[in-house]
Amino acid sequence: MTVTWSGVFPALTTQFHPDESLDLDSTARHLERLIGSGIHGVILLGSVGENTAHDYEEKLLLLRELKAAVRGRIPVLSGVAEFTTAAACRYARDCERIGIDGLMVLPAMVYPADRREAIAHFRSVARACSLPVMIYNNPPSYQVDVTPDMFRELAEEPNIVAIKESSGDPRRITDLINELEGRFLLFCGVDDLVLESVMLGATGWVSGLANAFPEENRVLWELIQAGRWTEARQLYRWYTPLLHLDTKPKLVQYIKLCMAETGLGSETTRAPRLRLEGAERDQVLQVIRRALATRPDLKVYSQQ
């Protein structure tokens, strides 16, 4: 199977009303804002989209509404984060019926599968539909590490086409390239490793902070793609304290607080995630407001 995914694919936040009910209109407006900023694709209902905080029918409703809103302008993927393999396969089939363009498949939630179990889960989901599949490897969060030799086995599945690499070790990019000889598209899944990952061979970026700083994301990506390393490093150094927020257990709350501070959305999350308070809130706000106070003039980069 051949797909041409590349570039910045935000893991879209899901917007909620103050009572935590789903706010489809605000979510669609936010997605439209990101499309206008130049994103290359989008992932709905990933970790940042609070996948596991939605009931099943809500997920399908959100997919239908946002797929329609996109109108074919960019690829639309959905996260697959179910608790059993059977539920993940059912969800994959429903995504295909809705017309979603691809899947980002996580390990089955809660249970830390071993090697054999993880491979069986990913194979089963891939075989349940004909959609192209990106495997999301994030051992720090999900306690399952999909190693290069495991991906060699998964390469037998023709519709597994991409890897979102979030191990936190940039050496993994080179290992995947050496082991798999270009079989998979490689996406950086850790915001504060994007420069390093692209230099080593990643051709895409699944980003969380793009939700709050879409123009900065776009310009950084364009500088990297153009090989303008001095300028890319300069912008990356400004951006990195914000990008670090994507690597924390409360990344959803942190990213949504960034969105609230930049006027791009609400910080409301669904419990058990709660509004940040006290010293933790102050520390995150300090990072955000320092960045806003020193926000670079992006026109400088476009003029060079």
SSE arrangement, N to C: EHEHEHEHEHHEHEHEHHHHH
CATH domain class: Alpha Beta
The CATH architecture can be given as Alpha-Beta Barrel
CATH superfamily: Aldolase class I
User: How many strand segments?
Assistant: 8
The CATH topology comes to TIM Barrel
Overall body shape: globular
Distance between the termini: 39 Å
Oligomer: single chain
Number of domains: 1
Residue windows where pLDDT falls under 50 for at least 5 positions: none
**What structural class results from the helix and strand content?**
alpha/beta
Radius of gyration: 18 Å
Work out the helix count.
Answer: 13
Helix content: 40-55%
- Proportion of strand residues: 5-15%
- Sheet of most strands: 8 strands, parallel
> Whole-number average pLDDT?
96
Describe this structure in a few short sentences.
By secondary structure, this protein is α/β, with parallel strands linked by helices.
